[in-house]
């Protein structure tokens, strides 16, 4: 077996010059969400099937989609990697990836941190841990895990912009907006194609209510994030959010039809964005026509997987929007079974996912009092089932509309005041507050 060091000085087993170059390409694509990293991994393995870290990266790529279908492929790659002669660091990666395949995300994150403690320039360990910090809603580690390793990096090292990008997103999720924006922009200065860095800055502008700045930011850099990126749909979603906040509904629908659902993706992360955008439009009373049926069709093959509660809650939105109550009940049953399962999703489902899905179900049925109770209970702990602050805002938005429909005017006023404290010029919150005030005054 041939051994050589990667671009950051870490020893890799079973590779040669050509396969190592393909691996670096795959790693760059994974970090920047630019192009297809799996295609580059397959080229590396085509050169050297005994390339341990290429097998490990293949496994991680199949696990980071949060889809049940990727687990079997990942396990096959990990079995192949373990059958070779991995070094100590590579064996630790195999152990971390196997924990992910078993659904033990917290165990995997701990194993990845131990790798990083010893090898702070292992950017793959950091990238995977960061993604699963996101999937677990762990804001502290989103910020602090990159911070632990940053001083050990040099500016000229391959992967350094991605470390900055991860730190930027973690800073944003902890409301350190100025530092987050500066860090994200610094990453992009070095690597313009880094979609995660671009995304971190987009989140800052969303959380600060800087809608026009956000649109300008997205449009000015569109060539870097919109083309040949598996993350493009999510960035289009962010652009649509800015237009939605400005109540530019035709622009939102155009972005939905052409960009968010233009490719009719069956990738869970893309379907989440589509469901969430239609739900937000529905809360505002916008008739989205047959769009609900299309996204509900896309979710159908996985509604009984019970694999990740965050996905299940968004599948529930699609079924409610499409009026498919039998399928909505199947999601609830699958989530109930997940409560008896193993791994991290068990707690995610029990604590947040299933109560939220039931609250959404109640909202769709017009049982607004029950919806308010359910949404209120999960609101303080919603981060426990993953996603970003911007994504989880759908809980607050649904609670506001449920309160309005239930004529809970004092609650509407209180929730509106809360939103306006963070975004003083938010048109939607101002309208909710004015509506509540008019009823209370009467």
Task: Give structural notes.
This protein has 442 residues and is mainly α. Among the domains are: 136 residues, Serine Threonine Protein Phosphatase 5, Tetratricopeptide repeat, CATH 1.25.40; 142 residues. The chain contains 24 helices and 2 strands. The chain has a two-stranded antiparallel sheet with strand order 1-2. Helix 7 runs antiparallel to helix 8. The longest helix is centred in the C-terminal third of the chain and has 22 residues. The termini are far apart. The relative contact order is 0.07.
List the helices and strands and how they pair.
Layout: E1 3-5, E2 11-13, H1 17-32, H2 37-47, H3 52-63, H4 69-82, H5 88-101, H6 105-118, H7 123-135, H8 139-149, H9 160-173, H10 177-190, H11 195-207, H12 211-220, H13 222-225, H14 232-245, H15 249-260, H16 268-283, H17 291-299, H18 309-321, H19 325-338, H20 344-365, H21 368-378, H22 389-405, H23 409-422, H24 427-441
Antiparallel strand pairs: 1-2
Helix pairs in contact: 1-2, 1-3, 2-3, 3-4, 3-5, 4-5, 5-6, 6-7, 7-8, 7-9, 8-9, 9-10, 9-11, 10-11, 11-12, 11-14, 12-14, 14-15, 14-16, 16-17, 16-18, 16-22, 17-18, 18-19, 18-20, 19-20, 20-21, 21-22, 22-23, 23-24
Keywords:
442 residues, globular, Serine Threonine Protein Phosphatase 5, Tetratricopeptide repeat, 72% helix, 24 helices, mainly alpha, two-stranded antiparallel ribbon
């Amino acid at each position: 077996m041939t051994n050589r060091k990667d671009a950051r000085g870490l020893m890799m087993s079973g590779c040669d010059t050509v396969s190592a170059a393909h691996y670096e390409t795959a790693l760059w694509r994974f970090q920047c969400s630019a192009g297809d990293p799996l295609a580059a991994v397959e080229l590396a393995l085509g050169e050297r099937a005994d390339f341990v870290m290429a097998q490990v990266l293949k496994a991680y790529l199949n696990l980071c989609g949060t889809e049940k279908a990727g687990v079997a492929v990942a396990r096959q790659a990990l079995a192949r990697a373990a059958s070779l002669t991995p070094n100590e660091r590579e064996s630790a990666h195999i152990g971390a990836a196997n924990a992910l395949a078993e659904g033990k995300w917290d165990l995997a994150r701990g194993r990845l941190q131990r790798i990083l403690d010893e090898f702070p320039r292992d950017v793959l360990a950091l990238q995977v841990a960061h993604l699963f910090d996101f999937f677990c809603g762990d804001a502290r580690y989103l910020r602090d895990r990159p911070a632990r390793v940053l001083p050990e990096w040099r500016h000229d090292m391959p992967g350094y912009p991605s470390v900055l990008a991860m730190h930027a997103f973690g800073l944003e999720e902890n409301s350190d907006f100025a530092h987050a924006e500066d860090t994200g922009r610094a990453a992009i200065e070095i690597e313009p194609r880094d979609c995660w860095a671009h995304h971190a800055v987009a989140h800052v502008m969303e959380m600060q209510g800087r809608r026009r700045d956000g649109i300008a930011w997205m449009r000015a850099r569109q060539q870097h994030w919109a083309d040949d990126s598996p993350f493009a749909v999510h960035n289009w979603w962010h652009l649509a959010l800015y237009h939605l906040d400005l109540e530019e509904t035709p622009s939102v629908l155009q972005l939905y039809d052409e960009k968010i659902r233009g490719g009719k993706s069956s990738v869970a992360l893309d379907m989440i964005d589509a469901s969430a955008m239609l739900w937000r439009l529905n809360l505002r009373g916008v008739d989205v026509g047959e769009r609900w049926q299309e996204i509900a069709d896309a979710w159908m093959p996985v509604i009984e997987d019970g694999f990740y509660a965050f996905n299940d809650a968004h599948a529930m939105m699609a079924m409610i929007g499409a009026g498919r109550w039998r399928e909505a009940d199947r999601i609830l049953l699958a989530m109930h079974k997940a409560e008896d399962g193993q791994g991290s999703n068990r707690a995610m489902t029990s604590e947040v996912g299933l109560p939220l899905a039931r609250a959404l179900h109640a909202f769709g049925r017009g049982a607004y009092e029950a919806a308010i109770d359910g949404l209120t209970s999960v609101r303080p702990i919603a981060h426990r089932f993953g996603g970003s602050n911007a994504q989880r805002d759908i809980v607050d938005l649904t609670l506001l509309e449920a309160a309005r429909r239930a004529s809970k005017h004092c609650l509407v006023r209180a929730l509106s005041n809360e939103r306006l404290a963070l975004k003083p010029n938010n048109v939607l919150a101002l309208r909710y507050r004015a509506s509540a005030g008019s009823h209370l005054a009467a």
